[in-house]
Write a structure and sequence with these properties.
Helix content is 55%, strand content 3%. A hairpin with an 8-residue loop joins strand 2 and strand 3.
Length: 321
């Protein structure tokens, strides 16, 4: 037995420091870990105090953690240039969307302002210009094809509700039995996006699907319960159901569950529903957001005759063929 082993045996109840430099490195590492945990805790606390939703809190914490891991600096050494470099990496190297980068910047700015107390460091950092992308919309035949591929009553009821009422996936999974107002044929959305309550319409077809589902699973609290006791179905589960149905229906569009909400608004607009009512049903704060559906609706565009068709009609001449 060597001398180090003998001493360890004799003083087994005591802590022996063989290398003071190693001890200092470990101590410093532990301190940094503790500091990061404390900072994230402080970030969560501030987000809760400001009234942010759990979904936003999770997103902001993730963004800040990724930023801190990328900079790999002590908190006191982080400066505004680090944020700019990180934003450039998100947009140029990783090719993230502008909306993703904007949310990341919002999280970092919040972190600088309320946790580091150095919001002045991010004043000059500009946001990437908002992308003007039109929403993907499914036509009625495509939606019917998707629904026809869903045999599970629970899944069918969920997708029916999303399309027929214009719900977000996070709203449909958080519905409670008491939120379905059969007498008024309305659905009460509690604390939707922006922590707002609203009502939207309840489809007769969706209600029939709900009743069929209810006779089988008999929901008591959450309308669509999850696998764990007392939990609601996860958004990811709904996404998987929809993706499988699209694949089975051979729908090649870049569609997600949220596409059903876009389709709801577009089809209402095409049917002549006033834009103001659609705004209320969707829970949009501004009519400017709802107006985007006028760009994907064929309500007015379908009535416009192409100048080529008009030209040939006027000349009554099809020799070009």
């Amino acid at each position: 037995m060597n001398s180090k082993a003998q001493l360890n045996s004799i003083f087994e109840a005591e802590e022996i420091i063989w290398n003071i430099n190693e001890r200092l490195e470990n101590s410093s590492r532990e301190k940094n870990i503790y500091s990061l945990d404390a900072v994230i805790f402080s970030l969560k606390k501030q987000l809760i105090l400001k009234g942010y939703t759990n979904k936003t809190i999770t997103a902001y914490v993730g963004h800040v953690k990724r930023f801190l891991q990328y900079t790999n600096k002590k908190l006191e050494n982080i400066v505004g240039d680090d944020v700019e470099v990180y934003m450039f990496m998100l947009l140029n190297e990783q090719q993230n969307s502008h909306s993703y980068a904007n949310q990341s910047l919002s999280a970092i700015k919040f972190f600088f302002k309320y946790v580091l107390k150095k919001d002045y460091l991010t004043y000059e950092i500009h946001r990437p210009k908002k992308e003007n992308k039109l929403p993907e919309v499914l036509n009625k035949e495509e939606i019917f094809a998707i629904f026809s591929k869903v045999s599970n009553y629970k899944h069918k009821a969920i997708l029916f509700l999303i399309y027929s009422s214009g719900l977000r996936v996070g709203e449909v999974v958080r519905l409670k039995v008491e939120d379905i107002d059969v007498e008024r044929m309305m659905i009460h959305i509690r604390q939707g996006k922006g922590r707002k309550d609203r009502y939207t319409i309840l489809s007769e077809v969706a209600l029939k699907a709900l009743r069929k589902y209810a006779t089988i699973e008999k929901p008591r609290d959450w309308l669509f319960s999850g696998s764990k006791e007392g939990s609601f179905l996860t958004e990811r589960s709904v996404q998987k159901v929809f993706s499988k149905a699209c694949k089975d229906a051979k729908i090649n569009k870049n569609a997600s569950v949220h596409t059903l909400r876009h389709s709801f608004a577009t089809h209402l607009l095409e049917a002549g529903t006033d834009l103001r009512y659609i705004q209320e049903l969707l829970g949009h704060k501004s009519s400017k957001i709802t107006e985007i559906y006028t760009h994907v609706s064929n309500k007015s565009l379908s009535k416009i005759q192409s100048p080529l068709d008009r030209l040939l009609d006027e000349q009554n001449n099809n020799k070009v063929f």
